[in-house]
Amino acid sequence: MRTAMANRLTPYLFMAPAAIIMALALMYPLGYMIWGSFREWNPSQTIGEAEFVGLKNYIFLWNDPNFHESLGVTLKFAFFVVTIEMVIGVGLALLLDRDIRGMSFLRTMFILPMMIAPVVVGLMWRYMYHPTVGTFNRTLDGLGIPTVDWLGQYALMSVIIADIWQWTPFIFILALAALQSLPRSALEAARIDGATPWQQIIHIKLPLMMPVLIVTALLRLIDAFKVLEVILVMTEGGPGLSTEILALRISRTATEFRELGVAAAMSNYLLILLLLLTVGMFAFNRWQEARAAKLHAQVEEEA
Amino acid sequence: MAAPTAKQNSAFFAVIAVLVFMSVGPVLLMFVNSFKLDVDIISGSTGLIFLPTIQNYETALCDVLWYEPEHLDFCALKFGGAFINSLIIALISTVLTLIIGCMAAYALVRFRFMGRDTVSLSTLMVRMVPPAVLLVPVFGLWNNEFCLDRDGLVGGAIREAFGGRGDVCLAGTHSGIILIYVAMNLPFVIWILQSFIVQVPRSLEEAARVDGAGPFQVFFKVVLPLIKPGLAAAAIFTFRIAWNEYLLASALSDRDTKTVPILIVNNMSEFNVEWGVIMATGMLLAIPPIIFTLLASRQIITGMTAGAVKG
């Protein structure tokens, strides 16, 4: 009798700590933020003392040119980062997909940039981009080429390059894993039928890899909206607002301008944007998976 | 496929060499520079010809060294203390996340709480939330709501023991930072561990149960040892986030609980950057993740691919 009772309670006991912590430190804060976004709220007040102002913060942001600028920078950053990284990462995976020694070494070395703290990544790149002592300008100078104002005029590009350095390996590793789990029979059949390497890539490898690639792109896209430390250390959002992505603007609004309500409203806009992107990609993924399954079956049948 | 010719192979090795150089180069550069004096870094006697010195590391670690470095009159950087804070926070939050996450993943798989789809969807949803979004509510809650009244029993005892004034709040304590890290990492850890627990054969557990083991014994003695690779992957990922995170830690920490990333950012934003010292601190922050990478690259790759490929 007692054991039966214990058995029935077990799953709840196992779930309880995780459920409590997530409710307390994730769900409650998110609700709290939504609640706070309707208030004129500064850090010295508790939320109860803050005045309720309805949609004022949202309307203010909707018409705020600085917010628009920041949003534009974020979207540009995310778009370029994901596109370029996907192209390079998948390209490298297709190029290097063979059993040669040195591959596992390459993979190990490739993970390194991802494991290192974003703060440190920012630090390294800030040094390399430095106008006078930095590696790049020194090299250019040594070659007699005019130096580039990396973190000034081309700040956004420089930030994007640093992110590409850090995260392309992620896509490479996932794409390689996907490639190596493709059905050998299909590739074999295509080769026997005389498909050129290009045809194999375009008609067989890429379509079969598609579901994994979409998930990969989605994960990268989500993470691209989270980037903050690298940019904070490299440019602090400047010059002007040219690299001030939304995450950075939220943290500045909260800590420098001391407008928690506006920061909360901005966080909500960012969340809604991410939610739309995620749901969109998820739906697209479902559709692609169904298609890939059909393709898979077809290829298998022919082989 | 025709056996790749020697020429082709050497071309591939060349490509690989270039790629390795590109990804490791910046790290090596930082490593080398952390042993240079600022004069050498700025004058740029381009290269490897310089007198290596550990002076930068001495400056960075001056508060935990047992001797006083000669070149310093005053120990300004309290890097040693921050290092210890980072270590405490990262280790405790990793252990907690693993234990709690493991139990939840087990319950989800064995007792069919929710479908796998629900779990992966909610993981994705939580993963979607940028730390910057949590900044405002966490700052508010940890400072104002998650507090013990100073007149209450526990709060009063803490105030008596540690001094200070006002109510006892989570903000500014190690536990405050640990709590948010555990919450942030849990969904991912549950997701990864799930995919490992599914592979543990049920019959093993049933055999143990027939032998009279209770559910907790089955879990700790049978299941846990079998999912060690998954635990390793999850541990590395959690540790990495807790060790590297800057934003939330900077909002929640006070003078005594600063972590290393906060110190680095604070020293970077000053106009005149001391490159040598800052690179030494950066290097110290980077060393644990580098060690993990070299020791456990296979587990890391497993963790990374389990995320997307098994979905």
Read across the widest sheet of chain A, the strand sequence of neighbours is 1-2
Which percent range fits the helix content of chain B? over 70%
Most strands sheet of chain A: 2 strands, antiparallel
Beta-strand share of residues of chain A: under 5%
| Estimated share of beta-strand residues of chain B | under 5%
Helix content of chain A: over 70%
Q: Gap between N and C termini of chain A, in Å?
A: 58 Å
Task: Furnish the topology, listing elements before pairings.
The complex is a heterodimer of chains A (303) and B (311).
Chain A: H1 2-36, E1 39-40, E2 51-52, H2 56-62, H3 65-95, H4 103-115, H5 118-128, H6 135-143, H7 155-180, H8 184-192, H9 197-224, H10 229-234, H11 246-255, H12 260-302
Antiparallel strand pairs in A: 1-2
Helix pairs in contact in A: 2-12, 3-7, 3-9, 4-7, 7-9, 8-9, 9-12, 11-12
Chain B: H1 6-33, H2 38-43, H3 55-60, H4 79-110, H5 116-128, H6 131-145, E1 147-148, H7 153-162, E2 168-169, H8 174-197, H9 202-210, H10 215-226, H11 228-244, H12 247-252, H13 260-268, H14 275-310
Antiparallel strand pairs in B: 1-2
Can you give a write-up of this model?
The complex is a heterodimer of chains A (303) and B (311). With 303 residues, chain A is mainly alpha-helical. Chain A folds into two domains: 1-27, no CATH class; 66-298, MetI-like (MetI-like fold, Orthogonal Bundle), CATH 1.10.3720. Chain A has helices at 2-36, 56-62, 65-95, 103-115, 118-128, 135-143, 155-180, 184-192, 197-224, 229-234, 246-255, 260-302; strands at 39-40, 51-52. A two-stranded antiparallel ribbon of chain A has the order 1-2. The radius of gyration of chain A is 25 Å and the shape is globular. Chain A starts with a helix and ends with a helix. The longest helix of chain B is centred in the last third of the chain and has 36 residues, at 275-310. At the A-B interface, α1, α4, α5, α6 and α7 of A face α1, α4, α5, α6 and α8 of B.
